[in-house]
Write a structure and sequence with these properties.
The chain is of the alpha/beta class. It has one domain: Aldolase class I (TIM Barrel, Alpha-Beta Barrel), CATH 3.20.20. It is built from 11 helices and 8 strands. Strands 1-2-3-4-5-6-7-8 form an 8-stranded parallel barrel, surrounded by 7 helices. The structure holds erythose-4-phosphate (E4P). The site of erythose-4-phosphate has 11 residues, from helix 7.
Length: about 220
Amino acid sequence: MQIFMDSASVKMIRDAVQHGLIDGVTTNPSLIAKEGADFREVVEEICRIVPGPVSVEVVGKTYEEMMAEGREIAKIADNVVVKIPMLKQGLRAVRDLSSEGIRVNVTLVFSATQGLLAAKAGATFVSPFIGRLDDYAHVGMDVVRDLVAIYRTYNLAAQVLAASIRHPRHVVEAALVGAHVVTVPPPVLEQLVKHPLTDVGLERFLADWQKVPQGIFGLPR
Ligand code: E4P
């Protein structure tokens, strides 16, 4: 399973890439607005840093607006993926942008029927929002599981990108049900790396090591 970072913070993305933690990035208008910088500059910088796909969302709601914005966004970099909201006119844009060779991520997916239509329209990635469904007392992960099974049964090329991830357990469950990608916000990415028992264990090992008189490779302590 690939791991993307759900953020538009150049600083945090750079750090995650340096440590080899992420395979791509997803952004959305809220995340980009939070950075308070020029849209194009932020996107160009992220695309330079990240070795994999970078999803960037359109903000127009008509077919014509989505097509125009999508084509412009696609020109920013080779690794850019155009994010289109799950709307009827959005599906038309997905079909037409995909047929022009532009990769599309269909966002704001909340049901398996929406995800099926997005894949049939030609989406490269389809993003069910797990946490937001959980907030409404649904089991968000059920949509991920259903879409993985449906795409496999019908040999659809779309990849299920589990989004709106709130905690590490979501990541584990997404992996268990076969999601192709999970996109995690920076705090959750940190949580994936850390475990208190690792810190306690390391402290104990290093304290014990102080008792060994010769140190390691004769290096000063
Ligand atoms: C995905 O591409 C979205 O940017 C994101 O996962 C939304 O998550 P949220 O529900 O935490 O805003």
